[in-house]
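worker-3 :: picked Helix-turn-helix transcriptional regulator
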Amino acid sequence: MPISTSTATSRRLLSLLSLLQVRRDWPGTLLAERLDVSGRTVRRDVDRLRELGYPIQAIKGPEGGYRLEAGNELPPLLFDDEQAVALAVALRIAVGTGAGIEENAARALATVRQVLPSRLRQRVDALEIAAAGADVQVDTQILVDLSIAIRSAEEVRFNYPGATPSDAVDPRPSRRIQPHHLIVRNGRWYLIGWDPERADCRTYRADRMTLRIPNGPRFTPRQLPGGDVAAFLSARFKGSAGADVWPCNGEVILHLPAPQVVPFAGDGVVEALDQGRTRLLIGSWSWAALAATLARFDTEIEVVAPQSLRDAFADLSGRADRAAQVSA
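worker-3 :: tokens ->
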């Protein structure tokens, strides 16, 4: 079936706009080559995009060219099929980020869906994405301010409540940190940065931060320990100050078949010994927590190593025995 002239032009405009968005400067001859058209057609298409509100500047030089500048107003947006689907998916996922943009994301998704062609709308509607809302919401402006401070390499001053009720009566003094990364984990936003007073990298929950204005002085960013922000945060959640490993690790044999152990082993290593026994290597942030985690399997447990895990089970057994006693 032949493609109408208007359809071919629309597709070419979309391709031209996509090219202008992926690099700053484009020589006119290279654009014509990429689009398989003449230089005159490129000039006409650029004029059409300008009429639609896109601020495209001409570049002077031996070859000449074009540059897509940032405008004062939002022009009509053009996306190819995959970009449109990706945008819809991202908007659905945004509901669970805890960034305080859930309502706006839902409105934007409704707008995008309304203008999608039927073939793309069916693809988007077929996506089963259960976007569970975050337990804690953070003010969007705080995320914006922290991001600006990270990009500008400026110290952040803030108040941060402690974890005990007494902190509400006698709040801790304001803190300062050299922010490096803003990351979301399990629906909560965390700021990772260098604390000059403690000479250590620290992690703070963004929803508990009250920023103070203005920011502090500029700083030279440091290398995050390990170089990987996700691994650093994971290690801190495991109670490790160094590598992304649990500080307490044990080896046990559970009197359960491996298929019943795997779903609850987390990042542990599972090895099937026979139909009724499974070897499990697993870690936790303390020996008591590791013993309690293993007790949840509700089966006989043989401790292979280390002795610290046996001691933790003995201590846990004593606590359980005392808890089971009836008070006089």
